[in-house]
Write a structure and sequence with these properties.
The chain is mainly α. The chain is about 40% helix and about 0% strand. The protein has one domain.
């Protein structure tokens, strides 16, 4: 392996949550920030269950445990879109 490939691989790494890092798959700390360990385990199970569902299944888009009390902010892409096109269009 060359140095550039190793460097790019290192940049793609995401900090893992220490409470549930032993579970299979990636456990990004940002997805579990501010949650209790039991909620983190339930949230991970929900993500894995929904990943197996079909895209057109409405149950695949059910809120995960811990989402109700979560504080969120719009992404930079959403903000840019709203700046360019406004909040809502009559034809949408």
């Amino acid at each position: 392996m060359n140095f550039k490939l190793l460097y790019e691989k290192a940049l793609r790494r995401v900090a893992q949550d220490p409470d549930i890092k032993d579970r299979k798959g990636s456990q990004p700390a940002a997805y579990h920030k501010g949650l209790s360990k039991s909620t983190k385990v339930k949230r991970d199970a929900q993500f894995k269950k929904q990943a197996k569902m079909a895209d057109d299944d409405p149950k695949a888009y059910k809120p995960a445990p811990g989402d109700k009390s979560a504080k969120t902010k719009p992404s930079k892409h959403t903000l840019k879109f709203k700046q360019m096109y406004g909040e809502a269009h009559a034809y949408l």
